[in-house]
Amino acid sequence: MTKAPVSASQVSGSPHYLGHRERLRERLKTAGGDSLADYEMLELILFRAIPRRDVKPLAKALLARFGSFPEVVAARPERLKEIEGISEAAIVEMKIVYEAAKRFAKTVVRDRHVLASFSAVFDYCRTAMAFLDHEEFRILFLDKKNVLIADEVQGVGTIDHAPVYPREIMRRALELNATAMVLVHNHPSGDPNPSGPDIQMTREIVTLGKSLNVLVHDHLIIGREGITSFKGLQLI
Q1: Does the domain formed by 112-229 have CATH 3.90.230.10?
Q2: Residue 200 pLDDT more than 60?
């Protein structure tokens, strides 16, 4: 009977995944992130949190549940915990990656004329919200030069609804001395088209803003399939 070949890891006594980890790190260094599949990028994150286990099956299980690399790192901790084998340390590592991506995108928007760099605003909002599994309602508060004063989440909700209180939004605008704002919320379904309630709520905020000299420049709906601008649809 022919014997199966003996691997280097078997000879050395070291686990097979250690060599795999080094090869994956080397590919990242020499060929860049574009050379790696989504599951391999997740493996690199999991390596730090789970040092003594083959994490490829876990990376693939995460993708099977959530769909893509961005959706995995954006997933809420309680949903990540549903995957067998995920540790608290692994969740922290994924949240670090997600928060780093948001901060990188936000840096391009900060201290700049928002209306003159709206493509950067789109990129930031998409990074922050497109892959969430629940609705968030975010406000970009602007000064009289349309420079970003504050970026705040005003409501966190369910798969298809986030609570929005127009008077609270305006109260916060006055506290910040904001003279304008951009409304942003996401549709976890992926479809960025506005619903009837979206349109009605936006009109209420616009009307209230006019009475207080706070201008609503736009309302953006963020989805995995794209971004919809109320101004572009002539709804504002």
Answers
A1: no
A2: yes
